[in-house]
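Supplementary Note 3. Input sequence used for the single-chain structure prediction.
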Amino acid sequence: MIKFVLCDDNFAVLQKLEKMLELIITKHNFPAEIGLSTVNYEEFLDYIETNPVDVLFLDINLKAPLTGLELARQS
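The predicted structure, written as discrete structure tokens, is reproduced below.
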């Protein structure tokens, strides 16, 4: 099972991305799931500490102390 994690500071963009990804997973019957979809970078960091993740979708310019690139490096 492929596990996706999404983090974007724009909730509307995050919802659209999540719906598109769920549609693709369902339509093509991929063995995948969205483990976490969040606007909170701290929740993202907590999640990846204890959960295996295969694919990250990260906003590069988060309105947070860390950028998406820095989050990716910590993953």
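The CA atoms of residues 9 and 61 lie 8 Å apart. DSSP finds three helices and three strands in the chain.
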